[in-house]
Please model this.
Amino acid sequence: MGRTRKRSTRAKRVVAASVALVLGGGGLIAANVYASAGEGWGRTPESADRISYSTIDCPDVAEELAEVPDRARGAVDRELATLDSQITVAYQRFAENRDRIADDPAFAEQQILTPLRNERLDILRRIGLLTDRPPLESLAPCTLRADDDAPDEGGREDGEPGEGEEGEEGGQQAGEGAGNGPEDSDFVDIRSVQPNVKTPRQRSGASRGTFSTDCGRNENGLFNPDNVIVAPGVRNGAHHMHDYVGNQANDAFAGDDDLARGRTTCRNQGDRSTYYWPVLRLQNGQAENDAKADGGGNDQNVGEIQTPAEVTLDFVGSPVSKVTAMPRFLRIITGDAKAFTNGDANANASWSCTGFEDRQLKDKYPICPEGSKVVRTFRFQSCWDGRNIDSANHRTHVAFADPASGRCGNGFRAIPQLVQRIVYDVPSGPGFAVDSFPEQLHKPVTDHGDFINVFDKRLMKRLVSCINEGRRCT
Model:
């Protein structure tokens, strides 16, 4: 880190032949790859006759575990965290040998993919025994993959400046990252995006109120790379740093009793809920104090952590019905920290700029005009199964309402929807990124938010009444 350079002009992509990687004990798996004659931000130049891989792609085992016996959940979560750590180590080995792999993909198969597959097999067999389910061995193999060579939002191709951007001649500067993203093509000028926000029509019986809770902006700097929902009892279970507001007792080992007793930064002390999300960093060559720590530099998350300029936490109603109270200690994750390799089926966070919030981006960071600030928005799931405060994959106990009708599916009931809006005052143009798992390359589509409800019973009752009666409350 420390250097800045001009953004490259439009990268010239050269499509290479599919490369077959022989996985130990498996068959032939083809990876469609490209070579680049240009340079991406944070990338080294590639000659046109070399294969350019960007990351390691492994099946997400957690997505296959909709049902896990209650007695086994803790052990399974720890095994899943071990799988994530194995991928992190393998990705680091890949990054250290990127040039050699570009010349000789067989090296990756022999030294990275086959050992990783064998390590994953051991874990998958243990998970199978814990869950009394059919073997999961088919999820063991991982592959190398390259960035999608697809047009940007607004019809631009990778690396091509949009309106208001400067290319090579204009000399716009972009900070170097950790060598694993983001790229120029991960950014788009918000002014080139057409308005795209649609909301269901409010119907008779809608709950039109809003309850706002003020829990600060993490001014006190509470960070850790744990995730008590996904990886309880595992230090650095996230492999990226989180901002926390609200409950101050949240770490990998916090149980419900710890959260119930924890201090809160929320103005209303009846709200001890925990709200957390990956930090946003300014990649300007300045080292943060976690540059040599887990979740920070050790996991290729570098740069100055940015304290939000504004955080708003609103609970809103349903466009078609009244809402019911959330159960205490309900856990909700919105978005997918692995969406770059998993695909965007569970991606949910959106990006925009102040003054342009009728234009929301899911897979691009916004370039905001001067005077406009970057905005991250999370709209959490607003339907609950009426029974569980969590589920094995941390998804199936809650759901989104139908986007057209606003109704919850069969067996689900409407609950207050958390809408989390985070605003940053960062320099205009590329030069920032959210923390991510190393192999997710800091892609904007991997953004996500986490929430554990620790409202006391009295305040939750007031929150529901405000929403159902159409009032605005704090």
Residues 1-46, 149-176 have pLDDT under 50 and may be disordered.
